[in-house]
Amino acid sequence: MPFVANCSMLFTELPLLDRPAAAKAAGFDAVEFWWPFPEPVPDDRDVDAFVASIDNAGVTLTGLNFFAGDLAGPDCGVLSVPGRSACFRENVPVAVRIGERLGVRNFNALYGNRIPGVAAAAQDELALGNLVFAAEQAASIGAGILIEPISGPKPYPLRRAADVGTVLAGLRAAGARNVGMLFDVYHLASNGEDIDAAISVHASEIRHVQIADVPGRGEPGSGTLDIPNYLGLLRAVGYSGGIALEYKPTTADTVTSLGWLEAVR
Residues with catalytic annotation? Predict the structure, then answer.
């Protein structure tokens, strides 16, 4: 199982375009990013600069988030939010074109918060249509769509692995086959999930894994989770995909925070 550097959370002591090269220097061959632009449809020059930063670093971009709004603010996603889901539709072809240039195989689609005054069923129906659209676009380049649980105080409706499983079942019923679960150990554990049981029950749906420790979302070993055990369980159920390090280093720089990794390897 290869380790992947999430360069939206790691190497943040550096400018965004310098992070892929820093990840390569630290021993990573693959990176992933949240949507790296403030807008859903960035300027072509900004896209070209981002693509060049990946190419020049000699790493593979294995995962990319679709535009999800201001994650530091009230947003967790826009695809199920009436009045904002058009941003998602505008973004999907842009993200897929970047993915085609860089060989991206997974696009993460954050579901969107519940909105007061809007029926949950209406938001779910909107989400289904938008996710089917995204899955069709991703399939055109041989890629897939990821759905993940989220923790924290925002009114995000997908908290447990079973919540994600329900969305995936709806997508498959609608004809989307290139969909899977982003098994985020930090978010699931923060929400009280039994990680061992979730790996067993949802093994066939797990398409990608992200890790961080609880509490604090720091590197493995900074909290209470037995992350090496979870990695062993994932291997035992046949998972061979990437393990993305999506944590906030508790050290002054990212490289120092990677000391745990050699022991796990």
Answer: 148, 246
